[in-house]
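User: I'm writing a tutorial on reading structure tokens. Could you give me a worked example: one chain, its sequence, then its tokens, then a sentence or two explaining what the tokens reveal?
Assistant: Sure. Here is the example chain.
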Amino acid sequence: MWTLLNQTPREFRTSRRRISRLSLRVSFSPKTFEHHIFTSFTSMESIGDDVQESHLLSICSALGTLEEKEVYIVGQGLIIEKKYVLGDEVLECLRDLKRMLQSDDANPNKFVVRALGRWKILQNDLIPILLVAHQDGKDKITQAVIQIMVPLTWPLDMETTDVKGQLEHQREYKAALIGEGVLSAVMDQLVKTLSIPYPQRRDRDHAIIGLILTLFRNLLAITDVQSGASGTVSTWLNSQLQEKLLIAMDSSEVLQLLLSFAGSASHRDYAEYSQILLDIFYQLFRDRDPEQLLDDNKTLSIELTEMVHIENQAKKTLKRPLQSRHPRFGGALWLEMDGQKLTTNNPSKALHSIQEAIDANKTGPRFQRKPAVDEARKKRKIKNLAAALIYERTARQFLENCFNTLILSAKRDFDMERDNIQDEHYVRFLWLCSFFLKFQLFAWRVHQKAKKSQPTLADESVDFDTVTGFVDLRGMNFVYKRIRQSRDEKNWAELHAAVECLKNMLAVLDAMSTSLDEQYRDASENIQSNMYYEHSSVETIISLLRTYTKRNLPLSYLKSLVETVHLLMKMLQEYSTEKSVIFTRKRKGGSTKRKPNENEATGDAAHPSEDEEDAVGKPAYTERSIAFSDIEHAFAYESIVDAYMHLLKHYKTLEDATIYYITVMLHRIFVKCKGESPLLYKLSILQLFNNIINDRSYLPNTDSHKELYTFISFMLSKFFKKLKEYPLLFLEILYPKTKGDCRKIEFDEDREMADVADTEDNLDKDGLPKPVRDIEVKKSVSWEQSLQVAVTLLMSSGAEHHLEWTKAKLLDASMSRLSPPSSATDKGGEGLNPEHEPYDIRPDSDEVQRVMKGDAHFRLLLNLLDLQEQRDLNGVWWTVPGWMSPDELIRRRSMIDESMAIPMDDAEEARKLTRKKRKSTKTKPKSKAGAKRGKRGPAKAKEQQKYTSAEFIDSETEDENDREFLRQAQERVRKRREREAADALDEKPFAATLRDNGNEWNAAHATDARAMNDLPIVVHESDSSSSSSSDSDSSSDLDSDPTGASDQDDQESIRDEKDRLKQSVALFGDDFVNLFADEGIPESGTISSKDLKSISNSEEPRSVKGVLGFAGL
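And here are its predicted structure tokens:
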């Protein structure tokens, strides 16, 4: 049995298996055998822990001991002095402890850490060893002690065993390390390592620097115990450990060294410590309020706290229900008020309303989810005046000398995505930026108040240059990026920090816009204009309000979000009053893959247009003007109103500023957004307003509360007035309402004309209206007939005014495109289809806006006219694409006129020709190598299949633009051919003869003779004869002449040129002749191949060269 006790765990497991197998062979019962052998070994882990504990205790005993020695002091005599004496093998013992801590790191029980905490090894051995080694100059021992202190003070993992006990041990460590001389010894070791020049430092030196900085971070991260006014003395003292640590770090000049580190973070010698320095200052200011640091009364009075507590208790007592005059009354009380009956055994209920008496007997839900609590936002008062002064001085020095440098260095690490970046680093970075932006803003406000009393006070004390390294366009983009990413990843802590940071950035920009310095005002205006230009900046904030849920996000997040919205709307309103027009850009949808470009095929090196930038892979944007009222209407949604009402439910504890922000937004929705005011006609909202009015006597009488009372009175008066006009509003207050329902209530519109695209179910995650299910005409119907079908359906529903409106818009678009397009001017007129600027067709009334969104017949007409739909939070509009010329727009307008003049006889027949538009079902092609690619990256894209046209192009490929142009050209020729076929055949004889090596090619053999009737041109080869004899002579000469091969090649090329010219003539008709006529071609119509070559090689005329180049000549 004793042999088993001395075995290792592995040997013990082996012996146990052997005994188990042996017990199966023997005749006696295994239970009897195991009862005598294994009763003292309940678990293998207990044996292992005992062995490890004995080994750990032997190591700790060899570290050193306290020895008493008699020392004679003059005037005092012999005094017994205790001095710590190092053990003979103290360095090896420290290394053994380090190894055991490393092996214990993966153990969730943390046996070694908890054992060292119980034995107080750090207080009794490690700190004395550190002081003695520092005094004797033994750097290796000092470094070994620091290497053990770091894991002992490391932030706790909440999944380990006995977290509460480990936290108590760490607080004891923190109190011990504050002792005299400990931080100075650590500081001296850091200075020694830093004194080594950077090129001469070894990896161990860099590790020691990082280790000491990590020790400072660990000490600051240990949280203090919370102590109230009625706590014990020991608890009260332990609640001030952070302040005592700050005083000790200041006396040992640790803070000055950390500030020097942060100020030099841009240098390569200190750039690698940016994240640990950022974490140190985050832990230093984590529980502090920047306003308290600059407040005159920096400390908290215990007596004042006690008095406030007593006063609050007295107020609660006054709010209790009044007791009855006769408390021994034992009968029942029956009341009848306002048609309601109540029977109660408590006469005191008669002093209140019947509704309150009824509600008093109700019980709440059995299971209630606790609201999310934000522990990082809890603020703690500073209790030590000396610590408060050090906090203020350190914050000012960091803001003036270190903020821009450290923040930019840390942001550079984030942008480069270094390996040491973790998720919590983003949260701490955003929190620290928010803290110092708020500190700067509050310092500016204090300075403005002081300047009012002292006008001669200089402006140099407050300088916004201290934060301009982060408050710029790149900083705004970084914060918006983190907001979107944390929202998508559901990282609520980072989302809260990002919104808080954005709020303070907007507040600083607002303060800069009112500064007396012109440079600050210009910088603020520049940043705001760039921010408003990005349409996503406003859409992101709106989507945050729409997607707010109280389950995951605390109430402090909603407060920050509401204040952010208020600042954004306030600044945007001031900006809109100064600027006549606000331009925004929005990213276009669709693929950003590279498309073939015509310029690349022809070797043209012209400047790329916007569409060509899309082909290269850059995101495409569309620019438009926007009004401030459109942005206000974007907030008129029931989900946003619910978020504000959820915050207003806490009206008893809300600050005055938050009450004001809520009132302003409710005023924007109810008054300024005409048509959306019934969003507030909801039973829960009416009940909340009623409670606020009833509690008015208990609430503060501030300006913000007065404005809230005024708004509630105004809203209720409107509600009861509308209730008389629309009695069904009694039922409407019980159900959620869309914008269409609100307009029906407010303007008494027909329910069928309600805006179905604005319902909550028809909105995507960004708050944009989803596209409705469109209809289309069957494929067997031509385009002209399809247009007639759409016009007939609109006329049958009485929508002729919509057709007239569309015709007017097409006319306006054609008139705006009479000038040459910008693309033709930039490229010198080259190309057959120059792009115009897209023309926006925007609704000029709510009715047009509704039919653009929800009328399938009107949308069918717009789709048939090849208009492109655009949408955002403010609604839907359509654009005329750039390839449509003025003539094409006029032609389509005339087609609408013809369809209106001769519509289809039966609208039901027209409706049968339509069907619901099928959804596109695009599937990804599966890779042959398998679906899982791992880290090797995406599979290589399959080469796009190329199509050729044998009718128009020989051995060449077309891109999408060429195919679209060919389709339009064919369409024009076909329509003109149908209109003028009879007149062309009767009036114009055929006058075109093409000879090719003596073989006559007549129009009768052409595929389309009518397309050649308008061509008064004869194309022939001037150097060749039309007789067969000359052909034979020339052929014989070619056979005899050694250089005849080149002449034969020339003849083949000329023959190819003629073939391509024939194709162009058949394709373009009059257009081709007019292009030559504009360039002064004689009426005889004779063009030789040399003339064609000279025209194609010359720089002018551009139009002829463009046609010939397209035809392949």
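What the tokens reveal: The mean pLDDT is 74. The radius of gyration is 43 Å.
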